[in-house]
Amino acid sequence: MLSMRVLFFLLAFLSLNVAHAQVFRIGINPKQNYSRVKFSNASSNYLIVGDSILIGILTANASCEVVKNSSGNLDVIFEGVRKAGLKNIKLIGLQNEGFVSFTGLSPITKERSFEGDFSIGLFSGKLKVINEIELEDYLRGVLESEAGIGQKEEYYKVQAVISRTFALKEINKHEHEGFNLCNQVHCQAYLGKGSGIKSIETAIQKTHKLVLLNTSGNFAPTYFSANCGGQTCDPIQVWNHSIDGIYSIRDTFCIRTKQAHWTSSIPYSDWKKFFVEKYNFPIDDSLSLRFLNDFPLVNRTGFYAHPGYGVPMRDLRERFNLKSSFFSAKLDNGKILLHGRGYGHGVGLCQEGAMTMVKLQYDFTQILGFYFPDFRLDYAFNAKFLE
Ligand SMILES: [Zn+2]
Ligand SMILES: [Zn+2]
User: Fold this and answer.
1) Cα end-to-end distance, the chain, whole Å
2) Mind listing the pLDDT tens digit for each residue in 192-233?
3) Average per-residue pLDDT in the chain?
4) Burial (CB count within 10 angstroms: exposed 0-12, middle 13-18, buried 19+), residue 48
5) Where are the alpha helices (DSSP H) in the chain?
6) Which residues are placed with Cβ below 5 angstroms of ligand 2, an ion?
7) Domains of the chain, CATH where assigned
8) Dist CA 156 CA 194 (whole Å)
9) How many Å lie between the centroid of ligand 1 and the Cα of residue 182?
10) pLDDT over 90 for what percent of the chain?
């Protein structure tokens, strides 16, 4: 067991070590209402600290559990001893690039390894697991989760800039829950430390501190989706409000990729029922009925057939579980056949289009410039404070 004096020096040393790094607090699976979690398989020693008092050292072969007890406080169970009635527990790694596995025991969630430290606390009576990690280390996990393995380094550079910009722009997104960002798609997928892919590491280093700034000098909104279907989407069509610097552009880079086209078939009765019951669609009018049964695809549009009918394409996407809100419709033999384009909301950067651009030897600055023509690449420290 370490003495308090040794602990003091260790903590002072650790805080000196990270003095210049930007540490993010990432909520791990915050929608899970955990009552029992476990930490194990540490790559190096971790201090277990409960309410600022050292409880023990988690070594590679050991594990510790944190339980929310019946009086609403936290207990730590370590080496068969229960230390009860705590408010906050920290796991502090003693080695750079160390990692530890986190598992939910109640409810059960998959074991995943994370770099950085952990802070387990109570927020509005709920147990919250927060991974405290430097931005660039966090990005390694994000890039593998969001872009997958097997991409070219240049593509990872694109993703590094947009994910770094997103993290900095949305740093207060979960402020009301006691952390910066969550590890889910709601913010950016971050499924742990990643598997050490060299091209991800290099892409992060080569774009170090680079972000996109908007014309006011603030962090830019760097939305992206899997495939835009040949035309990116104006934010107003999906989210009902416009976003400065993001508008619809033509994209010929993604139209021959695997998610460029989709089809779907819906029973006509379901289709008609939805239009009539939800939107009072005038099927007694022959022109309107013709639209209901035959809507050709030309350009992306916010509303089906005509804005006057008030049927948003995004509502149809949600109701019929479609890959995108960019499609045509035609009645055929008692069914409505939909021919659609793209996958995802379609706003901002198109991932499959960007991958094609990489194959065609465009570099990451050109790719970002194509999808975000109004934003400029700059260092994060040149950003103004957010409005
Ligand atoms: Zn989130
Ligand atoms: Zn595209």
Assistant:
1) 49
2) 998 999 999 999 999 999 999 999 999 999 999 999 999 999
3) 93
4) buried
5) 4-17, 135-147, 153-169, 198-206, 235-239, 268-279, 286-293, 313-319, 351-359, 364-371
6) 228, 251, 254, 350, 353
7) 4-134 (2.60.200), 261-341 (no CATH)
8) 13
9) 4
10) 89
